[in-house]
Amino acid sequence: MPTRLDLTVSQETTHTVVTLVGELDVISAETLRTALSKELEQGHNRLIIDTSQLTFCDSMGLRLLLQFLGRSFEARGFLKLAGVHGTLDRILTVTRLRDAFPIFDTVAEALEA
């Protein structure tokens, strides 16, 4: 089955930016899990997830983001979300998990913070 999630990983001076395009759900979550695990294993513990092009997120996607929020903290880093909108915004609001994540309008704002 073709993936419904494309992602790119780019290294900024002090951060790793993971850009998500498409749907983050039970089918595509492993793609993101693999990428984030690799980044943490390489010592890249300052993560920014660009969700501005994410079209859907289900509970598995949220669970994965929460898992890596914790793993990045354990690695003495952080995980920030940028460009939150649509389904992800709604699921964070309904579950009252919006305050669990540092959320920024853009990647540029997340990099500056």
Please tag this protein with its features.
113 residues; alpha/beta; five-stranded mixed β-sheet; 4 helices; 39% helix; globular
Description:
The chain is globular. It is 39% helix and 31% strand. The protein contains four helices and five strands, in the order ββαβαβαβα. It has a five-stranded mixed beta sheet. Helix 2 links the parallel strand 3 (46-57) and strand 4. It has 113 residues and is α/β, with parallel strands linked by helices. The model has no long low-confidence stretch (mean pLDDT 95). Helix 1 runs parallel beside helix 2 (59-74). It has helices at residues 29-41, 59-74, 86-94, 107-112; strands at residues 5-11, 16-24, 46-57, 78-82, 103-104. It starts with a strand and ends with a helix.
Shape: globular
Q: Helical content, roughly? A: 25-40%
- Given as residue ranges, the uncertain stretches (5+ residues, pLDDT < 50) are none
- What is the CA-based Rg, rounded? 13 Å
| Subunit arrangement of the protein | single chain
The string of secondary-structure elements, in order, is EEHEHEHEH
The percentage of residues in β strands lies in: 25-35%
Main β-sheet, in a few words?
A: 5 strands, mixed
Strands in their spatial order, largest beta sheet: 1-2-3-4-5
Give the number of DSSP strands: 5
Please count the helical segments: 4
C-alpha end-to-end distance: 39 Å
Structural class: alpha/beta
Arithmetic mean of pLDDT: 95
